[in-house]
Amino acid sequence: MPTLDQDLTQLNFEYLILARECARNNPMEAAWRFGVERKQIEEIAEFSVEKIRELSGIARTVITLMPMNTPKNVSLAAHAALLTSTQEAK
Length: 90
Fold this sequence. Notes:
The protein is mainly alpha-helical and 90 residues long. The chain is built from five helices and no strands.
């Protein structure tokens, strides 16, 4: 029977693989979906499977759940543009 640490490791691994693939295919969408800055998305896109396996085993969740209170009439592109301009202003 899997332990909590094994479950977290598997969940982290799958999440980071998904984040990496999204970051490689569409960095703007990845920044929006995963709630991280563009610099972090660029780093995630370069992760090897070995690096992801290493990060997965930290026995803590890497997933951040974000509230879904974005107005329904805002497009993904508009939301990503707002995110980008906010991040660049910092």
